[in-house]
Amino acid sequence: MVFSELYSAYYNALAKLITQAQREPLTADKAREIISQTAFRESAVEITDAISAERWQVIHSDYTTDLKHTPTMPLTTLQKRWLKSVTLNRRFKLFGDWDFSELDDVEPLFTDDDYRVFDCYSDGDPYDDGDYVHRFKNILFALHHGKPLDITFHSSRGKQVSLTVKPERLEYSEKDDKFRLYVMGGSFGAVINLGRMESCEVHDGKTSITERQHSERPRELQLEVTDERNALERVMTHFSHFEKSVERLDDLHYRVKLIYDADDETELIIRVLSFGPMVRAVAPERFVQKIRERLIKQMNIK
Q: CA 170, CA 110: separation in Å to the nearest integer?
């Protein structure tokens, strides 16, 4: 692993202990407090025992240290290369304005050219567009601070619509390569594609928005997976963010149950169809019928 809180916890805890011992006398109680804040709850016993036995030879049993320099955790070359690859992602700048100029001379660990993406639309959102980035950051600000938004967008019928809404959450569709915004307020539905927005500003002033009532309970989808060409593993990866369970039917077939919200149904239908004959929807009948209707429409397209 390139980065890992799990495996670096002991290093971070010990570094804080050494730094504290350099500044002022360190007591056993203070050491346990630092360890509990930095590492794991049960780590206090292991680390204090190691210090008492002086197994690590950086802190004495009386919690003093002979080290003169403050411990540092410089990034390895591998970590820098991974970070450089992340900063090259087209969606990276949507989430902040960080300065990574120190990575200018670092070779990325991987780039987009190293991947071949199949079954994904090519008309994704314009992540390099400055206006799109501005709208996206306004949405993030509103979500973090509980603020309403004034938005103008084009509906699916091409009509220009202006609304004041309260954002609920952002959703990214890997298949469409697009972001969608779930909102409360307005009469044009609860989901708006960011790519259709013309403007999006944080609302300045008071507004009264009735929260959307979620009357329907989460739905359960049952899929039958034929585990050929690594289909089961691909299904588990593709639907990793859904609550799910798997039941083995025989050596080749599995029953997968997914829990999903009604708002996600259209996206889920598209995803299920993308697996072709390897994945078959078996319940509920309403979902199965929608699959049939979409397949019939596709067959009738000339």
A: 27
Instruction: Look at residue 43 in the predicted model and tell me its pLDDT.
Output: 76
pLDDT in tens, 251-264: 888 898 888 777 67
State pLDDT tens for residues 199-244: 999 988 776 665 554 445 678 888 888 888 788 888 887 777 777 7
Q: How far apart are CA 283 and CA 235, in angstroms?
A: 17
Q: Provide the 10 A C-beta neighbour count for residue 222.
A: 16
Is 67 within 8 Å of 15 (Cβ atoms)? no
**190 with 214: CB under 8 angstroms?**
no
- 136 residue type, one letter: F
pTM of the complete model: 0.59
The CB-side HSE value for 146 (13 A sphere, CA atoms) comes to: 2
Q: How far is Cα 150 from Cα 165, in angstroms, rounded to an integer?
A: 7
- Give the torsion through C-alpha atoms of 96, 99, 103, 109, to 10 deg: 0
Closest alpha carbon to 123 in 192, 170, 193: 193
Cα-to-chain-centroid distance, residue 73? 26
Confidence band for 299, pLDDT divided at 50, 70 and 90: confident
Q: Contact 31/24 with Cβ under 8 angstroms?
A: no
